[in-house]
């Protein structure tokens, strides 16, 4: 892990964004808990995705499918048979690795990437990434079920239910945000790759022949979404899957990648899955999943354009992209330049001092604002230190009540990014914050 990532991990713990899961027991590998600020940031990213993908569109509806599904779902999807990674062990240091992540030169010598011993790696064996469990009181083969490794299959098996009940016609999409689980061999890079994570997925059902144009449309729309989230465009790029990368179900696939401190890595996948998934479930379930087009009088199995993003990865991207160590005259300021619409705390309210009625007025302003925004009240320590704490938390605005407030009922709004302060009437604070956070001018 790079030095910058170590600093980000430290900041996340210090400010209550992320904690190692079960830390008092020594932690559990690749599992994390979201703290008070982290859960707000995650919820804001979640809501922004849902707002743009579902509420702002007429052609997409939502779903929340169960985590536990019939085991035949995963047979039909191919996960039972082929959702595997090649696993090798080092006989010396006992470490385990994915064979396809080892340097080819070292792999040729069977050299362990951890301890460096040659001829120490075992032959590769396929390791299934799905977590198994049992439903019912008896642990036997017939009771085996799986924790879902992706949310997409819950959409496919409900495609007819959703289409019939919502009276949607193709083209239309189904969106879902939910937990998924993968028993990764080599998780790492903080919350980039974990064993328990959340996905934001949308499956768009189209007529065969229209799929190429719709794919291109979604490819561009999803990149724009990250820019609108506040991610720097120069840190984003497309990566097209080559023949050796392309999944067996995909006609074409692109990743949206972000340049992390540990390299360019996938944020989201956009895939043309053709009619593979619905055809497989139709075959295994013995149910007709075809669609009759009233306009063309054709019957066909729809093609699927998938957009699949990791919520946790998106949260990490927001933090990494926003992190800055800014050198000032006498100090280094650590600041998270989070976009105001996803920032955990929208504004902090400070009385300059706890006397002369400033604290009482600050409390009244705080009570008014908290009905509209997630705000924070802080009267502890020097104002400069309070500013720095909020800079690290990513709070975009700080409102200070001072002696002038008592005279003319104006307050200062300090901008996190520029550190500039403006005086505004306390009576227009809600309107002013609404404009600065959401761009609303009314």
Would you give an account of this structure?
With 442 residues, the protein is of the alpha+beta class. Among the domains are: 34-70 and 149-319, Bira Bifunctional Protein, Domain 2 (BirA Bifunctional Protein, domain 2), CATH 3.30.930.10; 345-438, Rossmann fold. It is 32% helix and 28% strand. Strands 3-9-10-16-13-12-11 form a seven-stranded mixed β-sheet, sandwiched between helices. A five-stranded mixed β-sheet has the order 20-19-21-22-23, sandwiched between helices. α2 (36-55) packs across α10 and α3 (71-77) packs across α9 (276-285).
In short:
The protein is an alpha+beta fold and 442 residues long. It has helices spanning 3-14, 36-55, 71-77, 79-82, 104-108, 152-156, 159-166, 211-228, 276-285, 311-322, 358-369, 383-393, 403-408, 429-438, and strands spanning 18-20, 32-34, 60-62, 84-89, 96-98, 125-128, 131-134, 144-147, 172-181, 196-206, 236-240, 252-260, 263-272, 291-293, 298-300, 303-310, 323-327, 332-336, 347-351, 375-377, 397-401, 410-415, 421-425.
**In order across it, which strands form the biggest sheet?**
3-9-10-16-13-12-11
Category from helices, strands and their pairing? alpha+beta
Provide the CATH superfamily of the domain at 34-70 and 149-319. Answer: Bira Bifunctional Protein, Domain 2
| CATH architecture verdict of the domain at 34-70 and 149-319 | 2-Layer Sandwich
Helix segment count? 14
Q: First CA to last CA: what distance?
A: 46 Å
What labels describe this entry?
single chain, 442 residues, alpha+beta, BirA Bifunctional Protein, domain 2, Rossmann fold, 7-stranded mixed β-sheet, 5-stranded mixed β-sheet, 14 helices, 23 strands, 32% helix
